[in-house]
Amino acid sequence: MVPWEAQRETFRDLVHGLQEDPGSDRAIEACLKWILLAQKNSASADGGVARHYSLVTGWAASYPETTGYIIPTLLEHAKRRNCPLLAEAAQRMMDWLISIQMPDGAFRGSHMHSAVVAPVVFDTGQILLGLAAAAANFGGPYMTSMHRAAQWLMSVQDTDGAWRHPNPFATPGDHVWETHVAWGLLEASRVSGEASYGEAGLRNIRWAVSRQQENGWYQDCGLGKDENSPLTHSIAYTLRGILEGYRFSGDPALLAAAVQTADALLTTLTPEGALPGRLDSNWKPAVPWICLTGLSQTAICWLMLYQDTGRAEYLKAAEMANQFVRRTLHIGEEDSPLCGGVKGSLPVSGDYCRFQLINWACKFLIDACTLEGDIKNVSPSPSKI
Description:
By secondary structure, the protein is mostly helical. 55% of the residues lie in helices and 3% in strands. The strands form 2 sheets. It has a 3-stranded antiparallel beta sheet. Strands 3-4 form a two-stranded antiparallel ribbon.
Protein backbone atom coordinates (compact mmCIF):
# COMPACT_ATOMS: atom_id res chain seq x y z
CA MET A 1 0.00 0.00 0.00
CA VAL A 2 1.50 3.34 -1.06
CA PRO A 3 1.27 5.89 1.79
CA TRP A 4 -0.97 8.90 1.39
CA GLU A 5 1.91 11.40 1.12
CA ALA A 6 3.39 9.47 -1.81
CA GLN A 7 -0.01 9.17 -3.49
CA ARG A 8 -0.64 12.91 -3.06
CA GLU A 9 2.71 13.87 -4.57
CA THR A 10 2.24 11.50 -7.50
CA PHE A 11 -1.18 13.09 -8.11
CA ARG A 12 0.43 16.55 -7.99
CA ASP A 13 2.98 15.56 -10.61
CA LEU A 14 0.62 13.72 -12.95
CA VAL A 15 -2.48 15.92 -12.69
CA HIS A 16 -1.37 19.40 -11.68
CA GLY A 17 1.95 19.24 -13.52
CA LEU A 18 4.58 21.95 -13.32
CA GLN A 19 4.19 24.82 -10.88
CA GLU A 20 4.98 28.51 -11.32
CA ASP A 21 8.71 29.17 -11.71
CA PRO A 22 10.01 30.61 -8.40
CA GLY A 23 13.12 31.97 -10.13
CA SER A 24 16.73 31.01 -9.54
CA ASP A 25 17.33 32.99 -6.36
CA ARG A 26 14.37 31.57 -4.44
CA ALA A 27 15.07 28.08 -5.75
CA ILE A 28 18.73 28.18 -4.70
CA GLU A 29 17.86 29.44 -1.22
CA ALA A 30 15.16 26.79 -0.77
CA CYS A 31 17.51 24.03 -1.91
CA LEU A 32 20.27 25.21 0.41
CA LYS A 33 17.83 25.15 3.32
CA TRP A 34 16.73 21.65 2.34
CA ILE A 35 20.34 20.43 2.41
CA LEU A 36 20.76 21.87 5.91
CA LEU A 37 17.54 20.14 6.94
CA ALA A 38 18.80 16.87 5.47
CA GLN A 39 22.00 17.20 7.49
CA LYS A 40 20.05 17.92 10.68
CA ASN A 41 17.66 15.00 10.16
CA SER A 42 20.04 12.35 8.90
CA ALA A 43 19.04 9.00 10.35
CA SER A 44 22.69 8.29 11.20
CA ALA A 45 23.07 11.68 12.99
CA ASP A 46 26.76 12.05 12.20
CA GLY A 47 27.24 15.39 10.45
CA GLY A 48 26.70 14.04 6.95
CA VAL A 49 23.75 14.78 4.69
CA ALA A 50 20.84 12.33 4.59
CA ARG A 51 20.80 10.52 1.27
CA HIS A 52 17.12 11.32 0.76
CA TYR A 53 13.76 12.06 2.23
CA SER A 54 11.35 9.27 1.33
CA LEU A 55 7.62 9.83 1.06
CA VAL A 56 7.32 6.25 2.31
CA THR A 57 9.95 5.86 5.06
CA GLY A 58 11.15 9.38 5.94
CA TRP A 59 14.75 10.54 6.31
CA ALA A 60 17.60 8.20 5.33
CA ALA A 61 21.13 7.85 6.71
CA SER A 62 24.01 10.05 5.57
CA TYR A 63 25.56 9.43 2.16
CA PRO A 64 29.34 10.01 2.13
CA GLU A 65 29.66 10.20 -1.67
CA THR A 66 27.22 13.03 -2.24
CA THR A 67 28.02 14.78 1.02
CA GLY A 68 31.51 15.06 -0.46
CA TYR A 69 30.50 16.99 -3.53
CA ILE A 70 27.88 19.02 -1.69
CA ILE A 71 30.73 20.62 0.30
CA PRO A 72 32.07 22.81 -2.58
CA THR A 73 28.53 24.07 -3.24
CA LEU A 74 28.00 25.08 0.40
CA LEU A 75 31.43 26.72 0.66
CA GLU A 76 30.77 28.69 -2.52
CA HIS A 77 27.42 29.97 -1.30
CA ALA A 78 28.75 30.70 2.16
CA LYS A 79 31.07 33.20 0.44
CA ARG A 80 28.54 34.52 -2.06
CA ARG A 81 25.85 35.06 0.56
CA ASN A 82 28.14 35.89 3.50
CA CYS A 83 26.42 33.09 5.37
CA PRO A 84 28.43 31.55 8.25
CA LEU A 85 25.72 28.91 8.77
CA LEU A 86 26.55 27.32 5.41
CA ALA A 87 30.28 27.35 6.16
CA GLU A 88 29.68 25.74 9.55
CA ALA A 89 27.54 23.03 7.97
CA ALA A 90 30.25 22.33 5.39
CA GLN A 91 32.85 22.11 8.17
CA ARG A 92 30.79 19.47 9.99
CA MET A 93 30.51 17.50 6.76
CA MET A 94 34.26 17.71 6.14
CA ASP A 95 35.19 16.66 9.67
CA TRP A 96 32.81 13.71 9.51
CA LEU A 97 34.23 12.52 6.18
CA ILE A 98 37.79 12.64 7.52
CA SER A 99 36.64 10.59 10.51
CA ILE A 100 35.36 7.75 8.29
CA GLN A 101 38.22 7.64 5.77
CA MET A 102 39.64 4.14 5.51
CA PRO A 103 43.26 3.42 6.51
CA ASP A 104 44.32 3.10 2.84
CA GLY A 105 42.79 6.49 1.95
CA ALA A 106 39.63 5.19 0.28
CA PHE A 107 36.01 5.82 1.27
CA ARG A 108 33.15 3.37 1.58
CA GLY A 109 30.34 3.22 -0.93
CA SER A 110 26.61 3.68 -0.38
CA HIS A 111 24.96 5.19 2.72
CA MET A 112 25.88 4.75 6.38
CA HIS A 113 23.18 2.16 7.11
CA SER A 114 24.28 -0.09 4.25
CA ALA A 115 25.18 -3.61 5.36
CA VAL A 116 28.04 -3.66 2.85
CA VAL A 117 31.14 -1.65 3.79
CA ALA A 118 33.74 -1.63 1.01
CA PRO A 119 36.12 0.90 -0.60
CA VAL A 120 34.66 2.28 -3.82
CA VAL A 121 36.45 4.27 -6.52
CA PHE A 122 33.47 6.38 -7.53
CA ASP A 123 32.49 7.42 -4.02
CA THR A 124 36.11 8.22 -3.17
CA GLY A 125 36.39 10.41 -6.26
CA GLN A 126 33.28 12.39 -5.38
CA ILE A 127 34.47 12.92 -1.81
CA LEU A 128 37.81 14.02 -3.25
CA LEU A 129 36.00 17.00 -4.81
CA GLY A 130 34.93 18.09 -1.33
CA LEU A 131 38.33 17.44 0.18
CA ALA A 132 40.01 19.51 -2.54
CA ALA A 133 37.64 22.42 -1.87
CA ALA A 134 38.27 22.09 1.88
CA ALA A 135 42.03 21.89 1.37
CA ALA A 136 41.96 25.01 -0.81
CA ASN A 137 40.00 26.92 1.81
CA PHE A 138 41.48 25.59 5.06
CA GLY A 139 44.52 23.38 4.35
CA GLY A 140 45.65 21.33 7.36
CA PRO A 141 44.04 17.92 7.86
CA TYR A 142 41.89 18.34 4.75
CA MET A 143 45.01 18.57 2.58
CA THR A 144 46.38 15.40 4.17
CA SER A 145 43.09 13.57 3.66
CA MET A 146 42.92 14.80 0.07
CA HIS A 147 46.38 13.42 -0.72
CA ARG A 148 45.49 10.05 0.82
CA ALA A 149 42.33 9.73 -1.26
CA ALA A 150 44.07 10.80 -4.48
CA GLN A 151 46.96 8.41 -3.94
CA TRP A 152 44.59 5.50 -3.31
CA LEU A 153 42.75 6.24 -6.56
CA MET A 154 46.04 6.22 -8.45
CA SER A 155 47.09 2.96 -6.77
CA VAL A 156 44.01 1.08 -8.06
CA GLN A 157 43.91 2.62 -11.56
CA ASP A 158 44.70 0.37 -14.51
CA THR A 159 47.46 1.31 -16.96
CA ASP A 160 44.96 2.26 -19.69
CA GLY A 161 43.37 4.84 -17.36
CA ALA A 162 40.24 2.92 -16.42
CA TRP A 163 39.25 1.84 -12.92
CA ARG A 164 38.17 -1.77 -12.57
CA HIS A 165 38.41 -2.01 -8.81
CA PRO A 166 35.55 -4.13 -7.38
CA ASN A 167 32.39 -2.13 -6.70
CA PRO A 168 29.60 -4.06 -4.93
CA PHE A 169 27.11 -1.33 -5.85
CA ALA A 170 27.57 -1.48 -9.65
CA THR A 171 27.94 -4.14 -12.32
CA PRO A 172 31.52 -5.34 -12.93
CA GLY A 173 33.42 -4.02 -15.92
CA ASP A 174 34.23 -0.68 -17.51
CA HIS A 175 32.41 2.50 -16.51
CA VAL A 176 32.92 5.67 -18.55
CA TRP A 177 31.07 7.73 -15.93
CA GLU A 178 34.17 7.50 -13.77
CA THR A 179 35.42 10.54 -15.66
CA HIS A 180 33.68 12.24 -12.73
CA VAL A 181 36.26 10.52 -10.50
CA ALA A 182 38.99 11.84 -12.78
CA TRP A 183 37.66 15.36 -12.18
CA GLY A 184 38.36 14.87 -8.48
CA LEU A 185 42.00 14.11 -9.32
CA LEU A 186 42.17 17.23 -11.50
CA GLU A 187 40.94 19.35 -8.59
CA ALA A 188 43.45 17.72 -6.24
CA SER A 189 46.20 18.55 -8.73
CA ARG A 190 45.08 22.18 -8.95
CA VAL A 191 45.07 22.55 -5.17
CA SER A 192 48.30 20.70 -4.40
CA GLY A 193 50.35 21.28 -7.54
CA GLU A 194 50.94 17.52 -7.75
CA ALA A 195 51.17 16.89 -11.50
CA SER A 196 50.72 13.12 -11.23
CA TYR A 197 47.15 13.56 -10.04
CA GLY A 198 46.26 15.55 -13.14
CA GLU A 199 48.03 13.07 -15.39
CA ALA A 200 46.07 10.18 -13.87
CA GLY A 201 42.79 12.04 -14.27
CA LEU A 202 43.46 12.87 -17.91
CA ARG A 203 44.50 9.28 -18.61
CA ASN A 204 41.05 8.13 -17.50
CA ILE A 205 39.24 10.84 -19.46
CA ARG A 206 41.13 10.06 -22.66
CA TRP A 207 40.39 6.37 -22.16
CA ALA A 208 36.68 7.17 -21.89
CA VAL A 209 36.72 9.38 -24.98
CA SER A 210 38.34 6.54 -26.94
CA ARG A 211 35.13 4.58 -26.35
CA GLN A 212 32.80 7.24 -27.77
CA GLN A 213 30.66 6.11 -30.69
CA GLU A 214 30.17 8.10 -33.90
CA ASN A 215 26.87 9.56 -32.71
CA GLY A 216 28.34 10.73 -29.40
CA TRP A 217 26.90 7.86 -27.32
CA TYR A 218 28.91 5.77 -24.86
CA GLN A 219 28.79 2.08 -24.17
CA ASP A 220 29.39 1.16 -20.52
CA CYS A 221 27.59 4.29 -19.33
CA GLY A 222 24.96 2.53 -17.23
CA LEU A 223 24.95 2.02 -13.47
CA GLY A 224 23.54 -1.50 -13.42
CA LYS A 225 21.34 -3.56 -15.70
CA ASP A 226 20.74 -0.54 -17.91
CA GLU A 227 23.73 -0.59 -20.24
CA ASN A 228 21.52 -0.21 -23.31
CA SER A 229 19.58 2.73 -21.86
CA PRO A 230 21.66 4.66 -19.31
CA LEU A 231 20.27 7.38 -17.10
CA THR A 232 20.81 10.97 -18.16
CA HIS A 233 22.43 11.15 -14.71
CA SER A 234 25.32 8.87 -15.70
CA ILE A 235 25.54 10.33 -19.22
CA ALA A 236 25.95 13.78 -17.67
CA TYR A 237 28.53 12.47 -15.20
CA THR A 238 30.57 11.29 -18.18
CA LEU A 239 30.15 14.53 -20.10
CA ARG A 240 31.06 16.71 -17.11
CA GLY A 241 34.28 14.81 -16.52
CA ILE A 242 35.30 15.26 -20.16
CA LEU A 243 34.53 18.98 -20.01
CA GLU A 244 36.60 19.34 -16.87
CA GLY A 245 39.40 17.47 -18.62
CA TYR A 246 39.25 19.97 -21.48
CA ARG A 247 39.37 22.92 -19.10
CA PHE A 248 42.32 21.40 -17.25
CA SER A 249 44.35 20.45 -20.32
CA GLY A 250 43.13 22.66 -23.17
CA ASP A 251 43.07 19.55 -25.37
CA PRO A 252 40.74 20.33 -28.33
CA ALA A 253 39.99 16.62 -28.80
CA LEU A 254 38.25 16.59 -25.43
CA LEU A 255 36.17 19.64 -26.34
CA ALA A 256 35.19 18.00 -29.63
CA ALA A 257 34.09 14.85 -27.83
CA ALA A 258 32.05 16.88 -25.33
CA VAL A 259 30.37 18.85 -28.12
CA GLN A 260 29.41 15.65 -29.92
CA THR A 261 27.59 14.28 -26.87
CA ALA A 262 26.11 17.63 -25.84
CA ASP A 263 24.71 18.20 -29.33
CA ALA A 264 23.08 14.77 -29.31
CA LEU A 265 21.47 15.63 -25.97
CA LEU A 266 20.10 18.85 -27.49
CA THR A 267 18.07 16.76 -29.94
CA THR A 268 16.30 14.99 -27.03
CA LEU A 269 15.17 18.16 -25.23
CA THR A 270 11.38 18.48 -25.11
CA PRO A 271 9.55 21.78 -25.79
CA GLU A 272 8.97 22.09 -22.03
CA GLY A 273 12.68 21.77 -21.30
CA ALA A 274 12.95 18.15 -20.10
CA LEU A 275 15.02 15.13 -21.06
CA PRO A 276 13.86 11.50 -20.95
CA GLY A 277 15.16 9.74 -17.85
CA ARG A 278 16.94 7.11 -19.93
CA LEU A 279 18.19 7.20 -23.51
CA ASP A 280 19.12 4.37 -25.84
CA SER A 281 22.10 4.19 -28.19
CA ASN A 282 20.19 6.14 -30.86
CA TRP A 283 19.37 8.91 -28.37
CA LYS A 284 15.72 7.84 -28.24
CA PRO A 285 13.63 7.89 -25.02
CA ALA A 286 13.66 4.57 -23.17
CA VAL A 287 11.29 5.54 -20.30
CA PRO A 288 8.33 7.92 -19.89
CA TRP A 289 9.67 9.61 -16.72
CA ILE A 290 12.32 12.31 -16.21
CA CYS A 291 15.49 12.07 -14.11
CA LEU A 292 15.63 15.57 -12.64
CA THR A 293 19.20 15.11 -11.44
CA GLY A 294 20.43 14.30 -14.93
CA LEU A 295 18.52 17.27 -16.32
CA SER A 296 20.26 19.72 -13.98
CA GLN A 297 23.65 18.10 -14.62
CA THR A 298 23.14 18.39 -18.36
CA ALA A 299 22.18 22.05 -17.95
CA ILE A 300 25.52 22.64 -16.21
CA CYS A 301 27.36 21.00 -19.11
CA TRP A 302 25.47 23.07 -21.68
CA LEU A 303 26.28 26.24 -19.74
CA MET A 304 29.97 25.32 -19.61
CA LEU A 305 29.94 24.69 -23.34
CA TYR A 306 28.25 28.04 -23.92
CA GLN A 307 31.16 29.62 -22.06
CA ASP A 308 33.67 27.61 -24.08
CA THR A 309 32.11 27.93 -27.54
CA GLY A 310 29.72 30.90 -27.44
CA ARG A 311 26.97 28.83 -29.07
CA ALA A 312 23.64 30.35 -28.06
CA GLU A 313 21.70 27.08 -28.34
CA TYR A 314 23.52 25.74 -25.31
CA LEU A 315 22.46 28.71 -23.19
CA LYS A 316 18.87 28.48 -24.36
CA ALA A 317 18.65 24.75 -23.64
CA ALA A 318 20.15 25.20 -20.18
CA GLU A 319 17.71 28.01 -19.36
CA MET A 320 14.80 25.76 -20.34
CA ALA A 321 16.14 22.83 -18.33
CA ASN A 322 16.76 24.92 -15.21
CA GLN A 323 13.30 26.43 -15.38
CA PHE A 324 11.74 22.99 -15.78
CA VAL A 325 13.40 21.63 -12.62
CA ARG A 326 12.58 24.77 -10.63
CA ARG A 327 8.93 24.35 -11.58
CA THR A 328 8.84 20.94 -9.86
CA LEU A 329 9.77 22.40 -6.46
CA HIS A 330 7.67 22.98 -3.37
CA ILE A 331 8.40 26.59 -2.35
CA GLY A 332 7.13 28.53 0.65
CA GLU A 333 6.14 25.50 2.72
CA GLU A 334 8.74 26.05 5.44
CA ASP A 335 7.39 23.36 7.79
CA SER A 336 7.50 20.64 5.15
CA PRO A 337 10.44 18.32 4.33
CA LEU A 338 9.35 18.70 0.72
CA CYS A 339 10.14 22.42 0.64
CA GLY A 340 13.22 22.96 -1.52
CA GLY A 341 13.73 19.24 -2.13
CA VAL A 342 14.23 17.85 -5.64
CA LYS A 343 12.70 14.52 -6.59
CA GLY A 344 14.61 11.68 -8.12
CA SER A 345 12.03 11.22 -10.84
CA LEU A 346 9.20 13.21 -12.33
CA PRO A 347 6.62 11.96 -11.68
CA VAL A 348 7.88 11.01 -8.25
CA SER A 349 6.63 7.46 -8.89
CA GLY A 350 9.23 7.01 -11.67
CA ASP A 351 11.84 4.29 -11.35
CA TYR A 352 14.83 6.46 -10.38
CA CYS A 353 14.81 6.94 -6.59
CA ARG A 354 11.07 6.33 -6.50
CA PHE A 355 9.14 8.46 -3.97
CA GLN A 356 12.37 10.14 -2.85
CA LEU A 357 13.74 13.68 -2.72
CA ILE A 358 17.51 13.23 -3.06
CA ASN A 359 20.34 15.42 -1.83
CA TRP A 360 22.45 15.33 -5.01
CA ALA A 361 19.56 16.58 -7.11
CA CYS A 362 19.44 19.66 -4.85
CA LYS A 363 23.18 20.18 -5.24
CA PHE A 364 23.09 20.04 -9.03
CA LEU A 365 20.10 22.39 -9.31
CA ILE A 366 21.90 24.92 -7.09
CA ASP A 367 25.02 24.66 -9.25
CA ALA A 368 23.09 24.91 -12.51
CA CYS A 369 21.13 28.00 -11.44
CA THR A 370 24.27 29.59 -9.98
CA LEU A 371 26.22 29.14 -13.21
CA GLU A 372 23.33 30.51 -15.26
CA GLY A 373 23.26 33.54 -12.96
CA ASP A 374 27.00 34.04 -13.35
CA ILE A 375 26.69 33.99 -17.13
CA LYS A 376 23.91 36.56 -16.91
CA ASN A 377 25.82 38.49 -14.23
CA VAL A 378 23.01 38.17 -11.67
CA SER A 379 24.12 38.45 -8.04
CA PRO A 380 22.36 36.47 -5.29
CA SER A 381 20.17 38.27 -2.79
CA PRO A 382 21.39 38.64 0.81
CA SER A 383 21.06 35.34 2.64
CA LYS A 384 17.89 34.58 4.58
CA ILE A 385 19.24 31.24 5.73
